[in-house]
Amino acid sequence: MLGLVAATANGRRLASHLAAAWEDARLYEGGPKEALPRAWEECGGIVLFLAAGAAVRLLAPLLRDKRTDPGVVCVDDAGRFAVPLAGGHGGGANALARRVAATLGAEPVITTASDALNLPGLDALGRELGFRLEEDSDLAAVGAALLSGERVNLVCDRRWPLGPLPENVAPSGELEPPLILISDRTVPVPRPAAVYRPPTLLAGVGSSRGAGAEEILKLLERSLAEAGLSPRSLAALATVDLKAGEEGLLRAAEALEVPLRFYPAEELAGLEVPNPSEEVRRAVGTPSVAEAAVLASGARLVLQKRKSQNATVALGRLPVRGRLYLIGLGPGDESLIPPLARNALARAEVVVGLEQYVRRVRHLLRPGTRVLTPPLGQELQRAELALAEARAGGSAALVSGGDAGVYGMASPALERERGEVEVTVVPGITAAQAAAALLGSPLGHDHCSISLSDLLTPWETIRERILCAARGDFVISLYNPRSKGRDRQLAEVRRLLLAHRDPETPVGIVTDAYRPEERVTLTDLASLPVEEVGMRSIVIVGSSRTRVVAGRMVTPRGYEG
Fold first, then answer.
1. Are both 210 and 313 inside the same structural domain?
2. Do residues 229 and 326 make contact, with C-beta atoms less than 8 angstroms apart?
3. Are 313 and 305 in contact (CB under 8 A)?
4. CATH number assigned to the domain comprising residue 489
5. Phi and psi of 355, rounded to 5°?
6. What pLDDT, on the 0 to 100 scale, is given for residue 67?
7. What are the two backbone dihedrals, phi and then psi, of residue 465, each rounded to the nearest 5 degrees?
8. Phi, psi angles (nearest 5°) of residue 247
9. Which DSSP helix (H) or strand (E) runs through 343?
10. Is position 548 within any domain?
11. What letter would DSSP give residue 422?
12. Which residues form the Cobalamin synthesis G N-terminal domain (predicted)?
């Protein structure tokens, strides 16, 4: 929950706006002196609508530990600036300031050194991936080395989608300080070091009826110690579904603060394990519970089952799922690149796309981001390059103009992805939407988009689609209307449409939308100047209802009826 505290009438107005916009926010009544202590105890983040000096004086007696204190953002009475005052990384205040700024139209003022230099914050590194930071980590010393440009060694058992890291963070096989260690292994660590425990381990657990939580926890502790693995990397417990009501198992999972997964006995019985047991088969219908539950979870067995009097435990290591962002950059103007796309680009350690698209966003990439730009015509290679990075456990962005899912790179990438990686499709403003906005509102009623390029689709198929759209009286957005080597299709489309549409049907041509060379032409179907259209153009042909109103192309929705 986020707490909102205000001192003035205007501050309360701004706070009320946030409370209405955010489901996880609560406006505290009363003056800041009374409201802030209540919010401090009840909330994970606080937005104070108050002068910074007054806010600091009120906060001072409440501050205890940056690892547990809520993040605090101060907003001026005019709502112009959002300033994180405490808990920038650990308390999430930097992220909260950006969220406040986005909602209020304010400017986030981030003073944390790593954020100001566009570097990762060590106290938040891997947090969204479930990393747990060891409490004795030397964040100050390693952070100072990072900011000063000194070499910081990164030792990571496996690749993770961490996003881009600074050039002075050097992947290494040696535990040499200053060090960032990401591992589930318990090894001696030289200092200074920041040690992260990723959620890689899964414990399969079998138990006799009535086995207690204490026995299960002790066996698990011994098994982890024997394997040299950290309990802080434990991500889940798994067992057979017949044990769903066993109190000992439930309490063990609760004590460890991890989920408990259940698998049907018949599914576990179908898995080949190192140590099957006929006695277990007779009892629960599968010759293995602990080892089979590990394998059923998709983990690789790293410690075969260990026994106590009433329990068995086996340990497995879960696979790392990389991340693939499929991003549409909009039509051309930087201001039309959506915030979701900017956030995804900042999280990608590799950006793949045509040079003309990557060039538009190079300034948005964080230091250390790699760029791959296979040329036009190598669409499948671009998709495979991005997928290969994500399959290896990294984070990759595959960029397209417009919207990635509309004549973009989302389709070839998703055709080849088989559930191995986390995929986020980031929507963008399509070429048709951009052209329509410049023309007025031609897409106000039913419409369709058709590409006239016959490189991937036979012309007869395209021709049939044009005729169907004409008979259905759709507004038609024509993509790839004409090129130097392909100049007959648009003229033929005009001829086909004239058989179904009035010659005076409005037609809009937009070339280089939202770019310095932008050209917008409003004409009619009979006068469509084919020779003025190119591959950077979108042609929008109106329906029988489309009109020109005050110089704008409009397709009525029908409200007046």
1. yes
2. no
3. yes
4. 3.30.950.10
5. -55, -40
6. 76
7. -65, -40
8. -65, -35
9. helix 339-347
10. yes
11. E
12. 35-115
Q: Which helix (H) or strand (E) holds 395?
A: strand 395-400
**How many Cα atoms within 13 Å fall on the side-chain side of residue 245?**
2
The pLDDT of residue 544 is 96
**Domain shared by 182 and 223, yes or no:** no
Q: Which of the two residues, 290 and 125, has the higher pLDDT score?
A: 290
Share of the chain above pLDDT 90, in %: 81
**pLDDT tens-digit map of 27-58:** 999 999 999 999 999 999 999 999 988 999 99
What CATH number is attached to the domain comprising 75?
3.40.50.11220
Q: Is residue 288 part of a domain?
A: yes
d(CA 211, CA 12): 55
- For the segment 12-23, the average pLDDT, to the nearest whole number, is 93
The pair of three-digit structure tokens given for residue 70, joined into one six-digit string: 């809520």
Do both 101 and 184 map to the same domain?
Answer: no
393 and 446 fall within a common domain: no
Q: Are residues 106 and 12 in the same domain?
A: yes
Burial 503-520 (b: 16+ CB within 10 A, else e): eebbbbbbbebbeeeeee
> At residue 225, what is the residue type?
A
- Domain final position from 280, 297, 317: 317
Helix (H) or strand (E) holding 411: helix 410-416
* Rounded Cα gap, residues 91 and 96, in angstroms: 9
Cα separation, 367 vs 188, whole angstroms? 31
The answer to whether residue 432 scores a pLDDT higher than 80 is: yes
Number of domains within the chain: 5
Nearest-Å Rg of the Cα atoms of the chain is 30
Contact call for residues 452 and 479 (beta carbons, < 8 A):
yes
Q: Does 368 or 298 have the greater pLDDT score? A: 298
CATH number for 183: 3.40.1390
| Mean pLDDT value of segment 427-438 | 96
What's the gap between Cα 72 and its chain centre?
A: 25
Within a domain: residue 116? no
Interval 147-198: pLDDT, tens? 888 999 999 999 999 999 888 999 999 999 999 999 999 999 999 999 999 9
Contact of 368 with 349, CB cutoff 8 Å: yes
| Domain termination residue (choose one: 173, 197, 221) | 197
Rounded distance between C-alpha atoms, residue 72 and residue 91, angstroms: 8
Determine the average pLDDT of the residues in 237-248. 94
Q: How much is the pLDDT for 161?
A: 96
- Residues 251 and 335 placed together within one structural domain of the fold: no
Q: Please, what is the average pLDDT of the chain?
A: 93
- Statement to judge: residues 423 and 390 lie in one domain: yes
Domain that holds residue 313: 201-317
Sheet containing 537-541: order of strands: 447-451, 475-479, 537-541, 506-511, 519-524
User: CA–CA distance from 167 to each of 88, 150, 151, 159 (Å)?
Assistant: 24, 10, 9, 17
| Judgement on whether residues 154 and 89 belong to the same structural domain of the protein | no
Identify any residues that bridge with 132 across adjacent strands, giving them in sequence order.
197
**What CATH number has the domain bearing residue 269?**
3.30.420.180
